[in-house]
Amino acid sequence: MRAAIFDAPQAIRMADVAKPTPGPGEVLVKVKAAGLCAGDLYIYTGKNPYVSYPRIGCHEIAGVVEAYGPGAAGPAVGTRVVVDPFIGCGKCYPCRIGKRNCCANLTIIGVHREGGFADYVAAPASNLNVVPDSLTDFEAAFAEPVAIGVQGCRRGEVTAEDTVFVLGAGPIGLAVVEVARARGAKVYATDLSAERLSTAADLGATPIAGGAGLIERVLELTNGEGMPVVVEATGAIAAMEQTMDLVAAGGRIVILGLVKKGQGITLPGLDFTRKEVTIYGSRASVDCFPEALDLLASGKIHYPKIASSFALGEAPAIFAKLADNPMALHKAVFIPEAA
Predict the structure, then answer these.
(1) 44, 157, 180, 294 — which has fewest CB within 10 A?
(2) In this structure, is the dihedral angle defined by the CA atoms of residues 102, 106, 109 and 110, taken in order, positive or negative?
């Protein structure tokens, strides 16, 4: 089969490799659409803190059930599915309390094991989610990033009574914008890119210009209170450090962005008690795919309409383009030639 392989930072190539054989409890999925995530771009640029090389990337996978391995069962062969890429061990403390996305022995498809930038991918049969008939394969590939938005909003306990401020209008920030709006919340967004901020506005967020003076603009807008819910989706240390100044007293902060392993951030210690702020981390998602697929099928998520599709063979060129200019595309989805 054909696959796009990351050999090392700044090195990706197309190659013919053996089709995976599903092991015990696993399923073979024929890939129909494979989304390019910021995490994949980090693999390409050498900034992903979890990956090992060489690796077939991609954890945003929509496809069709091809075959099952020994002892595996699930949706019938031919069923359209999306793959939850996070595989917990089922034994550690996070897994025992239902947080397998934080598993101490976590395996991520496309990071620790081969992913969806290929004609086929093997995955645990228990990680399949059936795609509603109303969704195309291209649209279904958005289930994973939308699920991250669902997780972030669940962590922040976002309701229709809330006002939410999203820092960063990249792929994950836009997912949070749409999920929060689907919950009925009032949503503001900021970004250093005017183009990305315009996209967030098109998806229903009220834009606030980023950069110098952001805190003052937010305080003026909120009569000095700050935002009830602040969601950080940039991965930028400066943005993370601003969250405490941007959030209202008694509010919630949700951190989705990734920094390099070992990198610290600084927050004003007095504000932990002065504001009595709750700070949540949010990692990927757990049990959020059904809600994400329902939101996509309902038409409440419009993000797929601004994405672009490419043949998988174009992956090396697309990654080089995005490494040079991460804002060159809102979102890329690869379609394997054999799909």
Answers:
(1) 157
(2) positive
